[in-house]
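Supplementary Methods S3. Input chains for the assembly prediction are listed below.
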Amino acid sequence: MGEKSLYSRRATLSLKISEFEVPPMQDLLIIGKRAPIGPEAVRRMAEALSPEQFTILKLDHPRIEAVLVRNSILQMLDRDVLMKIVLEEAERLIHDTMVLRSELKITVSVEREVEL
Amino acid sequence: MEVSELMTTSVHTISSGKSIAYASERMNERKVGSLVVMDHGTVCGIITSRDIRASHPNRIVADAMTPEPIAVSSDQFVWDAVKIMDRHGIERVVVMDGDRLAGLVTREEIAIKLSQYADPLTGLYRAPYIQSIGAKFLKRGQPFHLLFIDLNEFGLINKRYGHPFGDDVIRAFSDRLAGAVAEGRDFLSRYAGDEFVMITLGNETEAEELVRYAAQPVAVGGIAVSSAVGHVDVHRESDFSKLSFRDVLEKASLLSTSRKMSAVAES
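Predicted structure tokens for the full assembly:
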């Protein structure tokens, strides 16, 4: 009679498939001073993935080195206004080794009165 | 002495897209403290071991390097290179001849060499410094004025008041001369015991002012110390391009002696 083995080795695979968003970029990336990826690398990455759609803004800040911004946002908002808001919010969260990503939605509400 | 005589020509380079970790390994392998960053044959930065220590190893060189590094040309004087390094607070400069990377020179390499030229009493450079500068200007066809400044009766001062006092006189006199030096225009050395040589690229009026300034007596410990100044305007010499520095120095030295003799005869 042959020897019956009880040993079994199996692997279970789990596969999730979803659509890859092109470009796979957020509206803003906030780069810490000692983050593993620096502004130039981020700029090159953005340029490779979404040519001419992002601008890197270098900052004089104790923890934040630069912010990558989608150009279309800069067309809608003044750069200084945007940076003031971003810094105010980001500096509460960020450590200088981190890179934060952020989505920014701008909704413009217009209400006008006209003479009838 | 020119930068080309001291620079390292085998410069190690790296491209800006490489990682800091790779740059660090490369520096360790090559046993160097810096790498020149080049992209497509163009120098775009320099990365040092200090930059490496301050950066995350995952970063790329472009994010840790000093962009647009300070550069000197290989035919610049090493003392000018040191001044540039002092002004920018850096330890090394890239040597560029036009757009071509020619080498790299460090403050340490220059300091070791220049210490051989420094005069410990006055802090001025000694004769080889001024010889090198004068010879270079003559080679370039650059006119200049040379002042040979010889203290009067310095031997007598030493004998009468002692050598330590003589040292005080030399120091006071050199400080006074150094105070008149305009950076980039004038070059001063303690040529020998009580003799100083100054080269100036200033115009005739500026050179004459320097002659008058150098000839004014200086009071040291209540003793008035004067000097005899021999002045040669190289531009006025016939065919100055054929002159050697020795010729110019000799003429200025003899003029100084002649002034000294005239002063003695008048007194």
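The beta strands of chain A are 28-32, 54-58, 64-70, 99-102. Chain A touches chain B at residues 34-41, 44, 97 (CB under 8 Å).
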